[in-house]
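look at this stuff:

>
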Amino acid sequence: FMYLGFMGRNVLECNCRLGDTEAQSALLATDGDFFELCLAAARREFRTARPLVQSGHAVCIVLASAEYPESSDRDDIIRGLDEMPETGAILLDCGTREADDPEEGRTFRTNRRGRVLNSVGLALTLEEARRIAYAGAAIPQFPGMKYRRDIYAALV
């Protein structure tokens, strides 16, 4: 998989991998069976595989701990997940855990990782996908939470 990382209109990096944020963006914005495609590749049966087809645009916003990109030693309660309004965003776990708290009851907590959650917006246009991703990213809250607020800003 070829992945280009942009800063503004400049290519910042070029990678050959499928990491979590790349997979969450690329695979959610496609129609097709990714497993079937990988299996066909492993068997060298490319001619029988149906390709993945882009069905829209996706934007993925990483909600990270204050220590990101390093691991965090924090174990904070994540607020807002239990009363999540309908934003259209898909929230994906990167570094959370469920815990029983004597005062709070059942909670979601940061799990001592740099990346905590990803908010993915899917839409027919890039601008709408960006709006949805940021709407989802604005709901969860935990101490020291940070995320870039300029993702795709130059394109909108």
Observations:
- Residues 126-137 form the longest helix (12 residues).
